[in-house]
Fold this protein.
Amino acid sequence: MDNGTDSMLDMYLFETNSLMEQLDELLIEAEKVEEFSTDDVNEIFRIMHTIKGSSAMMEFTSLNQIAHHIEDLFFYIRENGMDSIAPELKKNLFNLMFKSTDMLRSEIEKVENNEPLTENIDSIIGEINSFLNKISDADTSDDAAQANGEETDAPSVAELNMELANCPDDPAPFFIKVIFEEGCGMENLRAFMLVNALQDLQMEFRFYPDDVETNSASAQTIVDKGFFLALQEESHIEKVIGVISGTSHIQSYEVIENARNKKDKEAAQEDVQKTEVAASTKPETPAPAPAAPPAGARKAENTEKAAANNAKSHSGPVKQSLISVNLSKLDALVAIVGEIVITESMVTSSPDIQGLKLDNFMKSTRQLRKLTKDLQDIAMSLRMVPVSGVFQKMNRIVRDMRQKLNKDVRLTIIGEDTELDKSIVDGISDPIMHIVRNSMDHGVEVSKEERIAAGKDPQAEIILSATHTGSEVIIKVEDDGYGMDPDKILAKAANNGILTKPESEYTKKEILGLLLLPGFSTNEEVTEYSGRGVGMDVVKRNVESVGGTVSISSELGQGSCTTLKIPLTMAIVDGMEIAVGQSMFTVPIANIRQSFKVSNEDVVYDAEGNEIVKCMDEFYPIIRVHQLYNVETEITNIEDGILIWVEASDTSYCLFVDELLGEQQVVVKPLPSYLNSFNIKNSGISGCTILGNGNISIILDILSLYEMAQY
């Protein structure tokens, strides 16, 4: 693909995925009340209309056709109302819509993965058409119209000066012939874009050739013979011309009036004149009550009133203050801002100016530091997105599992406006989905009777919440189900041979932590959702990959809670600079609990001869950084250095370092890719940063550093 097409594809995927998220949320909320409101119907019609048009432009046939048929279905519903659907069929409508949107999403994923789209979509199209046939009235044939005394014959094409348009006989009273600029190309798609623009006007019209969205050969027909629009109302002509005038690559247009329509207008005018003459010769009589308009006219009248009300409430277009930006551009911006921050530190810390009294210079550098800090904050805020997109997807997970497992469960979402870095939000989507599935599958009781017997609400509840706490976000998935039995978990772990000490020495927290080990599952039966040996260890690994931690708490019979602690961003961290010999390291502030000095008498040894120290009535191992990384240093006596008590996930220990250099906000730089072959990620190193004096500081990964030290 060239850059232009690639950019179009990115925009298509962004818009379509956004529309699908809106649609999912709409369907979930509508299903709760078992009804589509008028606004819902209009919104679904608009979404499908947009997806249909953009998919046709991108030549994604399967997406175009599915959206087209759903649009047809909701066009009927929009015209006839939800009351036209029998109550017993409404549930089928929801199931059909969820199935159709799943198919659409599957095709979108294929586009994203550069895979071929499904060629045979007859099954889903057949289901949509079958449902439309069930709810629609088939008695709309020409014979029925003739039985009612209506005239159905159409004027000839020649009479309309349209013999070159290859149109069927069309009874429309007005036509507009559109000629595109010579050599503009893709005339069929340009015509289809014009049709899309006109459909937003919500008026009745037809167009010829009528296959411009699916038949690329129609482009030549338009070049040779023009593109025709058939209109029912004279009042619509000016609106259509307004749209045509604002459309690019149109050379000219011509309004053609049906000859019969002219005669009908002249006859109607004569009738009016005769009536006026007759009325002037008769005595005045009370005017009769107007006859009730036919049903169709009443519907049109009501629609016009609703449109008028909308016009009053929306006096002008709403200006959009949001724009979409490619994530790679934001990454580049953050990288440049990071370089500016580093350069600013290098300038202000330059050894060439140390010791000089430069009042004006120092005043300017303080202002520069403030501005770079503001710039840094703004750049990072651009990457922050709410977790609502991830949270709302869980509605669909719960809905589908509720039906398949026949469990009555409600999902409560709290704090969905909480914001995280975009890359982190993408990284936690799968872990949250896995935890919610676990809660639905074997966290919540099987039947209402069980819950009632336990004194609980018959309807189970899963609470998905997010809250800010300083430099991190706490995400919790809670359920009020069975809870977890520590004895069963411990027995299962012992049976699997994964215990590292006697069973009696495990605390409840440690027992629940066993659930996060690879291959551990309490489900005896393999289901669609669990029991395959791929469990919470995947959740733990994915969360830790974005710098977060996972913990589990539970009360037997009352429910369980899985807590994720997620950093706001991975690009910039608050760190404590430490020195070991001539080397400098950065420890994330979020991992530090306390720093302190000890005497030799405070240090004791375990059975294997490892150093441990007592903190807050607990004993913690000591890891000497200079020994771990073979760094030469003169500070080897425990009394000469300093201990930093650190914690990550459920791991806690003390680092022995030479000295603390001070707290600093640092820009995280990824390690060069060629270092991947040295297994750096498992060596206690998460990245590096450049300090103001130009030195490089290694950023320590507290969790993997401890695991490395054990081996």
